[in-house]
Every structure is written in structure tokens, then in C-alpha cells.
Amino acid sequence: MKGITKPVKYLIEKGHSGSYANGAVNDKLLSIPFRKLEKFCIDFNCTPNDLFDFIPENHQQLPHDHALYSISKGDTIGEIHKLLNELPVSKIKELYEVLKSSQE
Questions:
Q1: 14: which residues sit within 8 A by CB, 6+ positions away?
Q2: How far apart are CA 10 and CA 46, in angstroms?
Q3: Contact between residue 8 and residue 25 where contact means Cβ atoms under 8 Å apart
Q4: Nearest 5 degrees, angle CA 86-CA 42-CA 6?
Q5: Is the torsion defined by CA of 78, 83, 86, 91 positive or negative?
Q6: Distance (Å, whole) CA 65 – CA 6
Q7: pTM score > 0.70 for this model?
Q8: Is 77 left (phi over 0), alpha (psi -120 to 50) or beta?
Q9: pLDDT tens, position by position, 16-71
Q10: Is 15 left (phi over 0), alpha (psi -120 to 50) or beta?
């Protein structure tokens, strides 16, 4: 939720109930109806894959090429995601310029 300092308030303003907003922000939702998932994606301009991170349970025996692994952020990606979410917008703009210049 980049740039959103009060995500519960933001979700409530977008039409979500207070209890649902709290559950979503605090990772306490047990299920997400498709209509809610679609609304989250519209509200955050993202896809469902942006909202999920597949972490297999210890007892799960999935092939290494299973499709769910495509949404696994892994340790490195998860850490990068966390760091980016904590960066102020001014630093993100600086990082963007560095990344953009490295492609030239």
C-alpha cells in the first residue's frame, strides 16, 4: 500500500467496512470473496498476484514447477517489497532515476 499512511482509513473511504479493512491490513482475513478481491485490485491499481505471496506449508508436496510458485515472492523479493513500501516517495524517485539510467 505504497504511500498510504493510514491503510484502514483508506479502505474505509473506498467503501470497505471497518472490520473488513482491519482484517485485510492485519492479515486476519480467512477468505476474500471475488467481488472484494476485484475491488481491492481496482482500489490499488494492481492484479490479484500483487496481493498474494505463496508460501507452501511444511507438509505440502508440490512439484517445483507448480504454477503457485509464480506468485511466491521468496525471501529476497519479499525483503525488497518490504523495503520499497517503507521508502518515502522522494527516495523512490531517486531510485527510479538510478534504475532508469542503468538501462541506458
A1: 39, 43
A2: 16
A3: yes
A4: 35
A5: negative
A6: 38
A7: no
A8: alpha
A9: 999 999 998 888 888 999 999 999 899 888 888 888 877 778 788 888 888 888 88
A10: left
